[in-house]
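Troubleshooting: if your tokenizer reports a length mismatch, compare your output against this known-good record of 102 residues.
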Amino acid sequence: MENLFKIVDLDEQKQFDGKPFPLTVSPVNSETRLEELLDLIRDSRDLIKDEAMKYGAILFRNFPIRTADDFNRFIMQFGWKDMPYTGGIAFRTNIVGAVHTA
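Known-good structure output:
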């Protein structure tokens, strides 16, 4: 994972079974453009999924995601099925694609 992203240590980060939780990563190059990021995620999604299973969660920090559309494009690179929001106690509004209000 370190050859794709740099691992970031956060003061408030917890340890679980001797591993950071969540694993926090940032782009290696702070000038990474969104299109480069999307290609990197798409090409590395199996490794990223494996790391998420190993660490329990991955927190992506300082990526060039500025809008809801950018975020939707980012999450769609993982290849997951876009499932509609149905039910639940809180009302959610669809912003774009798989992005909803919290």
